[in-house]
Structures are given as structure tokens and as C-alpha cells.
Design brief:
By secondary structure, the protein is of the alpha+beta class. It is 18% helix and 41% strand. The chain contains six helices and 26 strands. The strands form four sheets. Strands 14-11-12-13-26-25-24-18-22 form a nine-stranded antiparallel beta sheet. Strand 16 and strand 17 form a beta hairpin.
Length: 379
């Protein structure tokens, strides 16, 4: 196996697959990077058993300057190989595999030889049927991930809650995450009706990794399923993730369908006030801030208190306020994370009572995106 390639193009592909390679894996060969060189392209594969990433460098793209002298496959130690390639002096890179998988790497006057492994020992990636695909703009899917993954559980005691639950019914894709203290739900209408129904839970860590890779606004992402794996196809890259097993709880009944008190704010203004109030609440054991709402007086007061440090109190100016008087306490960190994903839009916060979960929705298209936070009992 021998090829030469533009080093910058190769590094770009290398950076993509390295996201899936971990030095902590229990399967030694997975600390390596798999290279498959065929007639006109090179496929790079990285995996850590939870996620796998494949990307292809095509000889048809003149920028890659790819010249293949002989084909073959090899697994190379990912950490050393990538450090070598990134520090080489020239724009061209030549890789040649000799006897016993010894691999020669040349660029300019620099030459390295490293030991590779037989690619036949590398686990096969799952075969995934593409008969029933969902197509989405990558920009929208990245937004869905950002809005929901904040609410996945970090506790392994209930593994199913460490993922985002995706369901598809006709042309409605619904994404939900909850850690039992808060919930985030986003609906997306797909342009075309899908043939099948999806009901899957994708690990939050996999989705975060995928989100970092979705940077093109014009790109489409395609989602395909097998029994216990999902594959995302975009550009020249395939991203595989395992699915979580088990029944995701029914979260629809958690979202209140009526409210007693409502306030509207600019999301950045409310976020800034919560951040100020939480400066002191973080110093106390229970990390709680309080909202006091008096609709008749058009007053909303936010309070943070730490017995050891002091107290902060601030009167806020809501854009709209209606309903009954209310005092409610909650974890400011949940509120901050929820408000950040609304960007610069206006939000409506709707309360039913001091001890019932409250919702945060955008003032426009409020049925598409809901954040729900459970209050803290302080008495």
C-alpha cells in the first residue's frame, strides 16, 4: 500500500475521525486509526465502541492531490501517527506500508517508520439499512441537539435518561431529554412524510460529539437506523452511534396545559439577572434563587441569598405580566442553561403553582420548543 497526498487535506480528515478514538478503550486495536486505500480514495475510520466515525478523501477532488500507487489496509497507532503528520515539514505526505505492517511516512527531508497492525483485526462497523431515512438540514439538527442535550442526566443510575429520546410520527420529529429535575422538548416538521416510525434514544455524549462536527449551514444530514445503531451521513463523513436500550418514560404528562401566572422577558435580560442572583446562591449549600411575582403591581423581584456571604435583590422589568401573585424557588443553573439556548429571542415563563414545574417557551412558535424546570421546596 502506498499513496501521496496534500498534507493539509489529510490532517483535516484525520481531525474528524480522531474524535472517536480514545486511549482508554478496553479493545487495544481501537486506539488505532484504520486506513483503507482503494482505487481512487482513502477511507479513514476511528472508533471507541460507543461511536465510530468514517470519512473519505476522494481522488476526484484536485485539492487533495491524491496519488495512489498501490491499495491496501492498515491500522496505525492514532496518537503517534497524528502527531507525526501534523509536525511534518512539507505540503506533501507519502505513506508506504512494507513487510510486517511497518509503515514509512515521508515529507520533505523528514522520514518516520512506525509499526502498524493487521486491519483484519479491526471490528467491522454495523451494516445499516438506508431504506427508511430522515433528511434534515444540518443547521436545524445541530440546533435541536443544542436545545435538548443540556437536560440529559449525568447519573448512570438510570442509563436511559443519559440520552435524547427521538420519535417520528408522519412528518413530526420530536426530541426530548430529561434528568427528572428539568426537561427540554423540541419539535421539528420535516418537509416530507417518512414511511416508518422512529422511537430511539441516542446517548447525549454521542450527540455532543456529532454537534461539534456539523458546521455547514447548507449541508444536509441523513439519519439511518439499524436495531441498535444509528448512522448520520453528511458530506464525506459517516457518524455511527450505539442506541440506548430500554423504555424512555412518558414525558408528555409532565408538561402543564394551563398556567396561573405568566411573565415575558427578553431572554438575555432575564439570563443576566439570574446570573447576578446566582453569584451569592452558589456560596450557600442549597444553591437556590427566588422569584417573587406581583402581577397587579407589575413587579418581579429576583433574590439570591447566602447566609455566610450576603443577599442580592433586584427588581426586574418584564415586557408582560399577568395572573396571580407567586413566590417560587429554583436552581439557577438549570434556569441559566435553559435561557442560553433561546439566544436573543423573547421568552414566556408560565407558572401553575409554587411547587409545580414551570415552563419557558419562545413567545413565537411556542409549541415547537419547551423547557421545563422543577422548583425547589424551601420550607
Amino acid at each position: 500500500m502506498k499513496f501521496s497526498i496534500n498534507r493539509a487535506s489529510f490532517i483535516k480528515a484525520l481531525n474528524i475521525v480522531q474524535r472517536a478514538i480514545s486511549s482508554k478503550t478496553t479493545i487495544p486495536i481501537l486506539t488505532g486509526l484504520k486506513l483503507d486505500v482503494t482505487g481512487n480514495n482513502i477511507m479513514l475510520t476511528g472508533s471507541n465502541a460507543d461511536i465510530s466515525i468514517q470519512t473519505t478523501i476522494s481522488g476526484d477532488n484536485p485539492d487533495n492531490d491524491l496519488k495512489i500507487s498501490s491499495t491496501g489496509s492498515i491500522v496505525l497507532p492514532a496518537r503517534f501517527f497524528s502527531e507525526i503528520v501534523k509536525k511534518l515539514p512539507d505540503t506533501e505526505l507519502v505513506v508506504e506500508v512494507g513487510d510486517n505492517f511497518q509503515t514509512n511516512i515521508k515529507s520533505g527531508n523528514s522520514e518516520f517508520t512506525i509499526n502498524g497492525l493487521d486491519a483484519n483485526g479491526y471490528p467491522h462497523l454495523p451494516e445499516i439499512s438506508t431504506d427508511n431515512s430522515i433528511d434534515l438540514p444540518a443547521e436545524i439538527f445541530k440546533e435541536v441537539i443544542g436545545q435538548t442535550v443540556i437536560a440529559v442526566s449525568k447519573q448512570e443510575s438510570r442509563p436511559i435518561l443519559t440520552g435524547v429520546h427521538f420519535t417520528l410520527d408522519q412528518n413530526q420529529l420530536l426530541a426530548v431529554a430529561t434528568d427528572s429535575h428539568r426537561l427540554s422538548q423540541r419539535k421539528v416538521s420535516l418537509p416530507a412524510e417518512s414511511d416508518g416510525a422512529y422511537n430511539i434514544v441516542i446517548p447525549g455524549d454521542s450527540l455532543k460529539e456529532l454537534s461539534h462536527m456539523l458546521d455547514s449551514e447548507k449541508e444536509q444530514i441523513k439519519m439511518d437506523l439499524s436495531e441498535n445503531q444509528v448512522m448520520f451521513n453528511f458530506g464525506a463523513t459517516r457518524f455511527y452511534s450505539r442506541l440506548l436500550e430500554g423504555m424512555y418514560p412518558d414525558t408528555s404528562r409532565l408538561i402543564p396545559d394551563s398556567s396561573a401566572t405568566k411573565i415575558q422577558f427578553s431572554a438575555p435580560d432575564l439570563l443576566a439577572a439570574v446570573e447576578r442572583a446566582s453569584l451569592l446562591s452558589h456560596e450557600s449549600r442549597n444553591n437556590v434563587i427566588k422569584l417573587t411575582i406581583k402581577p397587579n403591581d407589575k413587579v418581579v423581584t429576583i433574590t439570591g441569598n447566602s447566609p455566610d456571604v450576603g443577599k442580592v435583590e433586584e427588581d426586574l422589568q418584564p415586557k408582560e405580566i399577568s395572573g396571580e401573585d407567586l413566590e417560587i424557588s429554583f436552581n439557577p443553573d438549570y434556569m441559566k442553561e435553559a435561557l442560553r439556548v433561546f439566544g436573543k429571542s423573547d421568552v414566556e415563563v408560565a407558572f401553575t403553582s409554587a411547587l409545580r414545574p414551570f415552563t419557558i417557551t419562545p413567545t413565537e412558535n411556542d409549541h415547537e420548543f419547551i423547557q421545563l424546570i422543577t422548583p425547589v421546596r424551601t420550607f
